[in-house]
Design a protein that fits this description.
This protein is α/β, with parallel strands linked by helices. The protein is 32% helix and 26% strand. It is built from 10 helices and 13 strands. The strands form 3 sheets. Strands 5-4-1-6-11-8-12-10-9 form a 9-stranded mixed sheet, sandwiched between helices. Strands 2-3 form a two-stranded antiparallel ribbon. It has a two-stranded antiparallel sheet with strand order 7-13. A hairpin with a 2-residue loop joins strand 2 and strand 3. The protein is globular and about 60 Å long.
Length: 275
């Protein structure tokens, strides 16, 4: 069976909801307490047995590359002090993982960002993490849960959760038949529908496992909502052939792409760490 070896991180967006903080800093570098969002995402991928990280960046995103690199001046400065331990997790990641980068020159939607990542992925199944969807679990990480599901179904998997009906216009929303507990065989999905148009209140969040045929499908899918290449539209092609599973994951998600969600995530994590 195909194994998931690579995780793609689309990270080229501007993060305009966090201006002016993100004027010169990637939103993926926003810290939850003392660790940036991108590092939480990489650690989640590692928990799923993935060690090859592929990051789609853009202008002004150099800090992402620098974070997963040696900082000679800083490390020399703190060598032998109690602060040295504070970089131990980052060093462990650098020792165990490889990182590759490519640039998304134009922002044409999540589908386009994933398509740009093809040169880093090749023709194999892969995971996708949107770092601003910050997920907390008591046991296995969300991506670990999904990798196990992939071993059974060998098709594209999307993480889903229930959202209030009045928030469906923020998400891709699915329709499908229950396969087993928390597992749906998706038959339809709609990008950012109004509450009246939404086929359900089950929304796709920023965790995917995709089969490599998705690249060709994205290329052949016309622009959708807002004139962008929507990954939801490409996945719908797979879903019509029975090739997409929706998984209601075990855990809690914080939308750190919004200021309110980011503050909630920070407060929750700080409280958990201090407890």
């Amino acid at each position: 069976m195909s194994q998931i070896k690579k995780c793609l991180f689309p990270a080229a967006g501007y993060g305009t909801r966090f201006l002016p903080a993100t004027k010169a800093m990637p939103k993926e570098m926003l810290p939850i307490v003392t660790k940036p969002l991108i590092q939480y995402g990489v650690e989640e991928a590692m928990q799923a047995g993935i060690t090859e990280m592929a990051i789609v960046t853009g202008r002004g995103k150099r800090a992402l590359e620098d974070h997963f690199d040696i900082s000679f001046e800083l490390e020399h400065q703190i060598q032998g002090s109690d602060k040295e331990e504070m970089l131990s997790e980052t060093r462990r990641i650098m020792d165990q993982c490889s990182f590759s980068y490519t640039r998304q020159v134009e922002m044409k939607g999540l589908g386009h960002a994933i398509l740009v990542g093809r040169r880093l992925i090749g023709l194999e199944p892969f995971a996708v993490i949107l770092a601003d969807d910050y997920c907390i679990t008591e046991g296995e990480s969300v991506l670990s849960q999904m990798v196990k599901l992939y071993q059974k179904y060998q098709c594209s998997i999307v993480a889903i959760e229930e959202v209030p009906r009045n928030e469906t216009l923020k998400y891709g929303v699915i329709e499908g038949d229950i396969e087993s507990e928390n597992v749906y065989r998706i038959s339809n999905m709609v990008e950012k529908p109004t509450p009246e148009q939404a086929p359900s209140n089950l929304a796709i969040i920023g965790r995917y496992i995709l089969t490599p045929d998705i690249f060709k499908i994205i290329e052949n899918t016309p622009p959708g909502k807002n004139g962008e290449m929507q990954i939801t539209d490409a996945l719908l092609t797979q879903a019509k052939a029975g090739g997409v599973i929706g998984y209601r994951f075990q855990g809690q998600r914080f939308d750190c792409g919004s200021v309110a969600g980011y503050i909630d995530a920070t407060n929750y994590t700080y409280q958990q760490q201090n407890d």
